[in-house]
TrEMBL record:
The chain crosses the membrane at residues 30-49, 61-82, 88-108, 115-134, 146-166, 178-198, 210-232, 239-260, 266-283. Belongs to the EamA transporter family. GO terms for cellular component: membrane. InterPro entries: EamA_dom (IPR000620), EmrE-like (IPR037185). Residues 146-283 form the EamA domain. Keywords: Membrane, Transmembrane, Transmembrane helix. The lineage of its organism: Bacteria, Bacillati, Bacillota, Clostridia, Eubacteriales. It comes from the Bacteria. It comes from Ructibacterium gallinarum. This is EamA family transporter. Gene3D superfamilies: 1.10.3730.20.
Length: 284
């Protein structure tokens, strides 16, 4: 069952990246409104899943606030990074961010490090480095704007997963829906407030033309977060997040190649192969 949940998370992560890219290709703007709308859809997802049976607990509040801040950073940073750079490179950095909860598992939770875990993580690092290069073997040209956006997305995405893990451990696997409803509700408020300043004149256009994309992204986000919470107590963070990271890299790269026609070099193909092998090693 765990492998099915992992596949669902990986596909959900990929779908989010693809819908963000498709949205930007169509509208070339509206990062805040898209983020707010997709967060609202994810919020509706958790309200539907819970069937309105919510039991709030004070223990959830601090973790939910931390997740809301991280989520807002991840949503806006990712969309802006995609607008400033290629999908494959942005996806690389976002997938890399799962190193944060992985090391949280090692350093704070005291999860054991055996040979296969260490070897798998090293393979993943090598895979990330190789994917980062173009045909001539030099690093892809990036701008300061992209670096800033990608850094915000990196920290936000990594801390989202870490806060989820922390909350589930603290609450003994309870209050999944309550945690996400509070966190997404705060995120919607924050992102909507941010939207009203730079995008209020074009808001109706963004909402109308981006409908399909933010609905799809929000549903995928809801599925990813729900399955992540379910798996957080069923798998060690040191295995779960590297597998998600490598899987997200591979599937998004395939979409970049076959859908967006982004050409990869020999080194990048080798990196994808190593990433696939890393998943196998991490599951031994």
């Amino acid at each position: 069952m765990n492998i099915i949940f992992l596949i669902g998370i990986i596909l959900g992560v990929t779908l989010q990246q693809v819908t963000r890219k498709a949205y930007y290709n169509r509208l070339s703007g509206g990062a805040y409104s898209f983020s707010a709308a997709s967060a609202f859809v994810a919020l509706l997802f958790f309200l539907i899943v819970s069937k309105g049976r919510l039991e709030f607990n004070r223990q959830v509040l601090g973790y939910a606030a931390g997740f809301a801040l991280a989520y807002s950073m991840a949503c806006v940073g990712t969309l802006l990074a995609i607008s400033a750079g290629p999908l494959s490179l942005t996806s690389l950095v976002i997938s890399y961010s799962l190193i944060i909860p992985t090391f949280y598992g090692f350093a704070v939770l005291g999860e054991p490090i055996d040979f296969f875990i260490l070897f798998g993580v090293i393979l993943l690092f090598v895979s990330l480095v190789l994917i980062h290069f173009e045909k001539n073997g030099t690093e892809k040209k990036i701008t300061l704007k992209w670096v800033i956006y990608a850094a915000v997305a990196f920290v936000g995405n990594g801390m989202c997963s870490t806060m989820q893990k922390m909350q589930q451990i603290k609450c003994n696997g309870l209050y999944k829906n309550e945690f996400m409803v509070i966190a997404l509700g705060v995120s919607v408020i924050v992102l909507t407030a941010a939207t009203l300043i730079p995008e209020r004149k074009s808001l109706s256009v963004y909402m109308k033309k981006g409908f399909v994309w933010y609905i799809s992204c929000g549903i995928a986000n809801g599925v990813v977060n729900y399955l992540t919470l379910v798996l957080s107590l069923r798998m060690p963070a040191s295995i779960m997040f590297p597998v998600i990271s490598a899987g997200g890299i591979i599937t998004t790269a395939l979409v970049s190649i076959f859908v967006y026609k982004e050409k990869l070099s020999l080194q990048q193909y080798i990196g994808l192969g190593l990433g696939t092998f890393a998943i196998v090693v991490l599951n031994i």
